[in-house]
TrEMBL record:
Keywords: Glycosidase, Hydrolase. PANTHER family: ALPHA-AMYLASE FAMILY MEMBER (PTHR10357), OLIGO-1,6-GLUCOSIDASE 1 (PTHR10357:SF184). GO terms for biological process: oligosaccharide catabolic process. Residues 94-493 form the Glycosyl hydrolase family 13 catalytic domain. Belongs to the glycosyl hydrolase 13 family. This is Oligo-1,6-glucosidase. GO terms for molecular function: alpha-amylase activity. The keyword Hydrolase applies. The keyword Hydrolase applies. InterPro entries: GH (IPR017853), GH13_cat_dom (IPR006047), Glyco_hydro_b (IPR013780), O16G_dom_2 (IPR045857).
Length: 623
């Protein structure tokens, strides 16, 4: 048991403690050496708030200790071989249905549109598709606010369309996973309507109501509480005002969710991506969030639910009762969890989730999504080395840089279009040659980049628009817009660029969100005809991955770890060795050594001898 008398090094030795300290250091852009240094390591926790310039209050320690002392387990060591599974060998492709392909000219992507592009996805080499939500929704948060779990969103089509889609996916020997959003529902969901109008019915306790709000803030700006006149109480929404948090403490609700999931599994879907699933268990009594933590993390209250007291229990229960009987796959979206927590959520012997998406590699230390800065790939390198070396054989890493919640990765790293092609390919090499399951986000395979939004009227996302309003209280409109522009999720939500015709071949009608002129040069049709395109490179790389199974389960051995801008590693098993070498910068970089063997694939046509060119990335096969 850790107490205020424990030392920093004791906290760092505790798995959850390490995750929390690492997170804080990342947020503050402080090196880990600050903690591993013996003088700091020997400090007792109780002195922390008293240190000069300390921004931590007394309550901070109590909160930290509660969190640390609720987790009693540590993940097992790494002594066993990796268990094989289809999803450890698969390449996933995420579809954001609203922006993928429209079949009926209303400017909104739909299920028939997706069906028409399944051959394209198959030819890319994809094994499984993750569909962002397609359920009935008033679209306050584009489908992440579900009104009816058993109905398809009218703009997307019908249940017949869905059944057809599933059959067509399976006919092509691919799998389909759905998005499961069960931390919250829309306020228009029948359960919520009953909860407020019939508080004495069983639904009365399905959501989180409180007589007085606490200080928790919403991820989409402002307080996380709505006043509900019908009940004379406040209701919790960690996201938009129309996304009401479900009360997982209620067992009947949990059963209801299990039944709903089974209903989809009965239809034959192959698994789920579970939206913000680490938020489902909230600390009982819903205490105020600590002020220091709130300031540091930019949201108040997170420490009371991002790794809640009953999280493991809920996940384990759902895995045993729902996922295992159907042999279904699960990947959890778990913002804020570090490596140790991720291990406890995904280690195969614990039976909670198969994998998680952890997000600490999407911004470099000291930055958040809404900062305008240039991402340094050396950070991605150190992050990947850490995960590859320490995540262990019981857990499978997910490999991704993009999704519908983040700007395009190429734009973050280098917006000079001159490098777009080589950079897009370099990112692909990292993603497809490390150990883990790659998730490619639609458009990433053609190197889509951030859009030229000109004003807020071009934006659609509730998060961006709310934040803009909030920022306008403290800065002028131009500054506020510039900030939104750096991190807006809408960058990833503009229509998929299929060809150079009007609306990029996405729709015959005006799309629901604007698109700039980029599609004229960057589109699927043009790239299919160009052997040198990013798309062709992805196809070759995915095919290469399937041919060299060492990439699935082989060892990863990093070399030249300390050499800035050089990222090099071997993938090895008893039968073969691959060598991957990359230059992470836009300048030439001296090679550590000239590789032996044959060059299987590279983003430069001819090999050079003593140096690597800007963002050069090659895969070699050794004899
Ligand atoms: C995470 C989803 O990816 C995001 O798009 C959504 O806004 C929130 N969860 C709330 O559901």
């Amino acid at each position: 048991m850790l107490t205020k008398k424990s030392r920093i090094k004791d906290v760092y030795a505790n798995p959850i403690g390490r995750d929390i300290i690492d997170r804080v250091l990342l947020q503050m852009n402080i090196s880990k050496k600050a903690v591993t240094n013996p003088i700091v390591g020997n400090l007792k926790l109780k002195v922390l708030p008293k240190l000069p310039k300390s921004q931590l209050d007394e309550g901070f320690l109590d909160t930290l200790l509660t969190l640390l002392n609720t987790e009693h387990e540590a993940a097992k060591g790494n002594d066993e071989a990796i268990l094989k599974a289809w999803w450890k060998e698969a390449v996933f492709y995420q579809i954001y249905p609203r922006s993928f392909k429209d079949s009926n000219g209303d400017g909104i992507g739909d299920l028939q549109g997706i069906i028409s592009k399944l051959d394209y996805i198959k030819e890319l080499g994809i094994d499984a598709i993750w569909l962002s939500p397609i359920y009935d929704s008033p679209n306050d948060d584009n489908g992440y606010d579900i009104r009816d779990y058993h109905k398809i969103m009218a703009e997307f089509g019908t249940m017949e369309d869905f059944d057809r889609l599933l059959t067509e996916v399976h006919n092509r020997d691919m799998r389909l996973i759905m998005d499961l959003v069960v931390n919250h529902t829309s306020d228009e969901h029948m359960w919520y309507q009953k909860a407020i109008h019939e508080p004495d019915s069983k639904y009365g306790d399905y959501y989180i109501f409180k007589d007085q709000p606490n200080n928790w803030t919403s991820f989409f700006s402002g307080s996380a509480w709505n006043y509900v006149e019908e009940r004379g109480q406040y209701a919790l929404h960690l996201f938009s005002k129309k996304q009401m948090d479900l009360n997982w403490e209620n067992e009947t609700l949990r059963h209801e969710i299990h039944d709903m999931v089974k209903w989809w599994l009965e239809k034959g879907v192959d698994g789920f991506r579970l939206d913000v699933i680490n938020y489902i268990s909230k600390r009982s009594g819903l205490p105020d969030g600590n002020e220091s933590i709130g300031k540091l993390m930019e949201y108040h209250g997170v420490e009371h639910y991002f790794y809640g007291p009953r999280l493991h229990e809920y996940l384990h229960d759902m895995k045993e009762k729902v996922f295992i009987p159907y042999n279904a796959f699960s990947v959890g979206e778990t913002p804020g969890t570090g490596m140790e927590m991720s291990k406890l959520l995904t280690a195969d012997y614990r039976k909670e989730l198969d994998m998680v998406f952890s997000f600490d590699h999407l911004e470099t230390p000291g930055h958040t999504r809404f900062d305008d800065y240039q991402y340094d790939l050396n950070y991605l390198k150190s992050y990947m080395i850490n995960w590859m070396e320490n995540y262990g054989n019981h857990c499978q890493p997910s490999l991704f840089y993009e999704n519908h919640d983040n700007p395009r990765m190429i734009s973050k790293i280098n917006s000079d279009r001159h490098y777009r092609n080589v950079l897009g390919k370099l990112l692909a090499v990292i993603q497809l040659t490390l150990r883990g399951t790659p998730f490619i986000y639609q458009g990433q395979e053609i190197g889509m980049i951030n859009q030229n939004f000109r004003s807020t009227s071009d934006l659609r996302d509730v998060e961006s628009l709310n934040l803009y309003d909030e920022l306008c209280n403290t800065m002028n409109k131009e500054e506020a817009f510039a900030k939104i522009l750096a991190g807006s999720r809408d960058h990833a939500r503009t229509p998929m660029q299929w060809n150079n015709q009007q609306y990029a071949g996405f729709s015959t009608g005006k799309p629901w969100i604007m698109m700039d002129e980029d599609y004229k040069n960057c589109n699927v049709e043009a790239q299919l005809q160009d052997e040198n395109s990013i798309l062709r490179f992805f196809q070759k790389l995915i095919a290469l991955r399937k041919e060299h199974r060492v990439i699935y389960y082989g060892e990863v051995l990093f070399i030249n770890q300390k050499e800035k801008d050089l990222f090099t590693y071997y993938r090895k098993d008893g039968t073969e060795t691959l060598y991957i070498e990359m230059n992470l910068s836009s300048s030439n970089k001296k090679r550590a050594k000239y590789p032996e063997g044959i060059r299987l694939l590279s983003n430069y046509a001819e090999d050079s001898s003593s140096f690597l060119r800007p963002y050069e990335a090659s895969i070699w096969k050794y004899n």
